[in-house]
Design goal:
This protein is α+β, with helices and mostly antiparallel strands and about 350 residues long. The chain has helices at about 40-50, 55-60, 70-85, 90-120, 120-145, 165-190, 190-195, 205-210, 215-220, 225-230, 245-250, 255-280, 295-300, 340-345, 345-350; strands at about 5-10, 20-25, 30-35, 150-155, 155, 305-315, 315-325, 335. Strand 4 (about 150-155) and strand 5 form a beta hairpin. The longest helix has 29 residues, at about 90-120.
């Protein structure tokens, strides 16, 4: 007779990067059910924002996620700029797009490397960690920081693309085009790696739609959804971004861990092309609408209304809603929905019948 029992994974666990608990119902070693309990840290962040003005909240929003910090900053800023009808120069939009894609490169390479570590493929994990250093070097050259860059501000960006940074970006693209293919080949050609990812954690296309999966998780199930394509923001409308789905490359989407790996590594190539096009088409002009922060805050203090923004973060739809109240300097209220909260709904389906 099989013994049935329940074990918790998280909220503090070496394999987790976020405070989330998964209660797994087991029969022997088979998972027959799962309950997901997301953490509530973001509630505290939203509450803290009420004692800060929009400039101060920028640095709070950066700390929602260490690896996708800039995606949260831009979502917050776009919501503020929407509420206040605040303009952003075209050159600043291009620089924002550049940093968003650099961050996507970092996130996807890190994810792919950690995925290899999780299945015991330590040599591929080491290769992934070596590869991610190059994009972090570029981010450091641009902002001075390897994470939490402090690049963006209301109405633009704080740092311009200098000749030194431009050179570093182009060298990075050249490096990845020469070196990243080896990482892809090592993992996808390895029969043990493929066996540990193929047909594991399957999410069908119908389930992905029904349970609100977003980002690479949904695209790996064959769903063509990418906000950069369907509702382009910043400079993405100039680049004709298309959602990457497995069936366009391999004829079929399995919706498993292997497809989620494939989507991310293919999006690395896509991001490199976008970065090249940003650098080739970077327009001249101002990088911020107003440099004097006192004038910026005075303008925002007059604003009244609710602003909304959603963008394609590395893990999917990232939504921020901000309310500004005329006469008040601080943010009236702020709501964040990171992509994890959408994807977590479908996790129990991926866990089912796996060991």
């Amino acid at each position: 007779m099989e013994k049935k029992y329940t074990i918790p994974i998280g909220p503090v666990h070496v394999g987790l990067k976020e405070p989330i608990t998964a209660w797994l119902d087991l029969e022997g070693e088979k998972i027959v059910g799962a309950t997901i309990r997301p953490g509530a840290i973001h509630r505290g962040i939203e509450f803290m924002a009420r004692d800060r003005n929009p400039i101060q909240v920028i640095y709070l929003s950066e700390r929602i996620c260490g690896i996708c910090s800039f995606a949260h900053v831009i979502a917050f800023l776009r919501a503020v700029e929407d509420a206040a009808e605040y303009p952003v120069p075209v050159r600043a939009q291009y620089i924002r797009t550049l940093v968003l894609e650099l961050e996507r490169l970092h996130s996807h390479i890190l994810w792919a490397g950690v995925a290899c570590y999780s299945i015991g493929f330590d040599s591929a994990f080491h290769l992934g960690m070596v590869l991610r250093e190059k994009v972090m070097d570029v981010l450091e050259a641009l902002s001075g920081n390897r994470v939490n860059y402090g690049v963006a501000t209301v109405g633009g960006v704080r740092w311009d693309i200098t000749p030194e940074v431009a050179k570093a970006v182009r060298e990075m693209v050249k490096y990845y085009k020469a070196e990243f293919g080896a990482f892809y080949d090592v993992v996808t050609a390895d029969p043990i790696a493929k066996a540990r990812m193929r047909n594991v954690g399957v999410l069908t296309p119908d389930e992905a739609v029904r349970y609100n999966a977003v980002g690479p998780t949904a695209r790996a199930s064959g769903i063509r959804c990418d906000i950069r394509e369907t509702s382009p923001y910043e400079a993405y409308a100039d680049f004709n971004v298309k959602a990457i789905v497995p069936q366009d490359y391999y004829g079929k989407a399995y919706g498993d861990v292997f497809d989620r790996f494939l989507v991310r590594v293919l999006e690395v190539q896509q991001s490199l092309n976008i970065v090249e096009r940003v650098m080739d088409g970077l327009p001249e002009g101002e990088i911020v609408h107003e440099k004097n922060l006192n004038k910026v805050l005075a303008s925002l203090k007059k604003a009244e209304g609710t602003g909304w923004a959603v963008l394609e973060a590395p893990r999917g739809d990232n939504t921020h809603v901000v309310h500004l109240k005329a006469g008040e300097e601080n943010v009236n209220w702020w709501k964040v929905r990171a992509p994890t909260y959408a994807n977590a709904v479908s996790w129990p389906l991926m866990f089912r019948d796996n060991e």
